[in-house]
Amino acid sequence: MINLPGENGFDTLPPVMTTDSSVPTRSRWQSRLLIAAVAGAGVSILLGVYGRIHDPAGQQTISGFFGTTLAFKAWMASLVLFFALVQLITALRIWGRIPWPRTLPAWFGQVHRLSGTLAFLATLPVAYHCLWAIGFEPDMSQPRRFIHSMLGCFFYGAFVVKVVAVRSRRLPGWMLPAIGGTVFTSLVGLWLTSSLWFFTNIGFPGF
Q1: Which of 28, 44, 126, 198 has its CB surrounded by the most CB atoms within 10 Å?
Q2: What's residue 26's pLDDT?
Q3: Contact status, residue 62 vs residue 129, Cβ threshold 8 Å
Q4: Do residues 158 and 187 touch, judged by C-beta distance below 8 A?
C-alpha cells in the first residue's frame, strides 16, 4: 500500500532531487531502510513465535451476523482486499501510472489515505482470531495453512517496514512502490489461502 504526504507517519512524498546539504546522504537513507527492515523482521518473528508457543484456543471469537468466525474472517479479509485495491488504484493514479481520472479531485488523497487506514484496521480482528484461536501452522504437510501462517507474519512485518521507511523522504524512486507492492502481494496471498479457500470449499456466501 502506497501513501500520500501527511502527518500520520504512513505517508511519504516521491523522491525530490535537490542539492541542499541537509538532504540525507545515501548512507543515511540506507541506514533508515535497514532499521525498517530489522523492525519488520522483529515483528514477523514475534508473531510467529507467539503463534507457535501459544496453545490455540480453538474457539469461536467474532462472528457477528455471519454465524461463524470462519465466515466472518473470510468476509473481513475480502473487505481488507477491497480497501487495499482502492489504495492501489489511487496510488497508481497519484504516481501517474494510470490516466483516470484526468483531473484529480480535492478528496482523492483523502480517499487514498483512508482506504489504507481502513484496510489495516480491518486486518486486526482477523489476525486476532488466527493467532489466538488457531495459532501458527508449522507443518508443511498442510501447505495451505502453512503458507497462510507464513504470509500472515510476513504481512505485518512488511507493513512495519513501510511505516518506518516512508518517514525518509529521500528514498530512491523505486523503493516505496516496491515496499507497497510487497505488502499488497502478501495480502493477496493471504486472501487466496483463506477467503478464496473458504468460499470454494465451505460455500458462498458462507452464512
Answers
A1: 126
A2: 66
A3: yes
A4: no
pTM, two decimal places: 0.80
Our measurement of the distance from residue 157's CA atom to the centroid of its chain's CA atoms, rounded to an integer in Å, reads: 9
> What span, in angstroms and rounded, lies between the C-alpha atoms of 191 and 152?
10
First to last CA, the chain: 30
Amino acid at 14: P
Neighbour count for residue 4 (Cβ, 10 Å): 19
Contact partners, residue 55, CB within 8 Å, separation at least 6: 135
CA distance 23 to 123: 36
User: Of 80, 48, 49, 41, whose CA–CA distance to 164 is shortest?
Assistant: 41
Q: Which among 51, 71, 69 is positioned nearest to 59, based on CA atoms?
A: 69
The string of pLDDT tens digits covering residues 52-77 is: 888 877 667 776 777 788 889 999 99
- Chain-centre distance for alpha carbon 192: 14
What would the 3-class secondary structure string for 64-92 be? Answer: HHHCCHHHHHHHHHHHHHHHHHHHHHHHH
